[in-house]
Design goal:
GO terms for molecular function: glycosyltransferase activity. Strand 11, helix 11 and strand 12 form a beta-alpha-beta unit. Strands 3-2-1-4-5-6-7 form a 7-stranded parallel sheet, sandwiched between helices. Strands 10-9-8-11-12-13 form a 6-stranded parallel sheet, with helices on both faces. It is α/β, with parallel strands linked by helices. Helices cover 44% and strands 16% of the residues.
């Protein structure tokens, strides 16, 4: 069959969905990936994996311009008409909404969506026009899908409670999974080193990470607290000068952005993600696969990765004091780091192996 995988951002499509697309190809199917980024920037990377890449115009991941959204929808419509896929699976909000509608209009029989997380707009407790529109759009999109994949129970329950989906369409998967051949157990460094990897935005808990780092450094000045990630256009993006201030004061080490987190995971001891919400955080799964204990939040998606006190700790969302407390605990209880890291790897192998996740996806899509 011919499968179209649609996303509003090529980097996450490439790095998060690569194993899924490979699994489809291994079953003899043709896979075409589509995202807004230029063909010249991404065609070669996808081609190396026997995946064709096409660009869709107009889709802005964080934009709110309705004219651009209309252009994006028409571009997706044009791509689907040209490719004539047998099945389509969409990932991320705008491409789920416009991709499913375009697929239905063009007569695609197999229409699927993969929810990474509900996002900040949807989780805002205040009523807003943007939230109301998004809910209405999701309701239409989900009604057109054969099935919708969810990565955590909190998100699926919220969508059901809001009356946006027939619960029989929901299929649960354990995040994006992690490739245990690419991410292997690594020896721990002698000194505890904390690491955060992700977009530098408030919703990822970067503000709390910075504040906690300052508290930790005030008690243990020689502690090492690292940050890896790129600056984003998201409405909650943190400015470069904020990060520079913490670097200049010796609170954190900013190591830049990367396409390969493995060298950074190898050099760290404890992985920290104080995110406000996730589908299931892939960066945490990758850290678990390398045998690292986890400190993350008791938030949707994040809490799926930690057994409290066994492979790490869960802290309240937006609570830098509790985060600092658990980071300090790791410094003061270094004998537990390896044991907790081994538990992370056990949980990862049992629950988050990408082969198990992909088996569910392909089986549901009848591939």
């Amino acid at each position: 069959m011919k499968i179209l995988v649609l996303s509003s951002y090529a980097p996450t499509l490439f790095y998060f969905r690569e194993d899924m697309m490979k699994a489809m190809i291994d079953q003899g199917h043709e896979v075409i990936a589509a995202a807004p980024e230029p063909v010249n920037d991404w065609e070669e990377k996808f081609n190396e994996r026997n995946i064709k890449y096409v660009s869709i115009k107009g889709i802005e991941r964080t934009g709110t311009n309705p004219i651009n959204d209309l252009k994006g929808f028409l571009s997706i419509l044009s791509v689907i008409k040209k490719i004539k896929p047998d099945k389509i699976i969409s990932y991320q909000a705008k491409t789920i909404i416009y991709g499913t509608l375009a697929a239905k209009i063009t007569g695609v029989k197999g229409i699927y969506a993969l929810m990474g997380g509900l996002g900040s707009v949807f989780r805002d407790t205040k009523k807003s026009i943007a939230k109301s529109i998004l809910k209405a759009e999701y309701k239409i999109a989900f009604s057109l899908c054969n099935n919708v994949f969810f990565q955590n129970q909190d998100d699926s329950k919220t969508i059901i409670k809001e009356g946006l989906i027939n619960k029989n369409k929901i299929v649960m998967i354990n995040g994006s999974g992690v490739n245990l051949n690419n991410f292997e157990k690594q020896p721990l460094p002698k000194q505890p080193i904390f690491l955060f990897v992700g977009r530098i935005i408030k919703d990822k808990g970067v503000t709390e990470y910075l504040e906690a780092a300052e508290m930790v450094k005030s008690k243990y000045p020689n502690s090492r607290i690292q940050l890896v990630g790129y600056f984003d256009t998201n409405p909650t993006a943190i400015k470069k000068e904020v990060i520079s201030d913490y670097v200049d004061r010796g609170i954190i080490e900013y190591l830049g952005a990367t396409d390969d987190v493995r060298p950074y995971l190898k050099e760290c001891s404890i992985y920290v993600l104080p995110s406000y919400h996730e589908g299931t955080p892939k960066s945490v799964l990758e850290a678990m696969a390398t045998g690292r204990p986890i400190i993350t939040t008791n938030a949707p998606g994040c809490k799926e990765t930690v057994v409290e006190g066994v492979n790490g700790f869960l802290v309240p969302v937006k609570n830098s004091s509790k985060l600092a407390e658990k980071m300090i605990w790791m410094i003061e209880n270094q004998d537990n780091i390896e044991k907790m890291g081994n538990k992370s790897l056990e949980i990862c192998r049992d629950k988050f192996d990408v082969r198990k996740v992909n088996k569910t996806i392909l089986s549901t899509m009848k591939l």
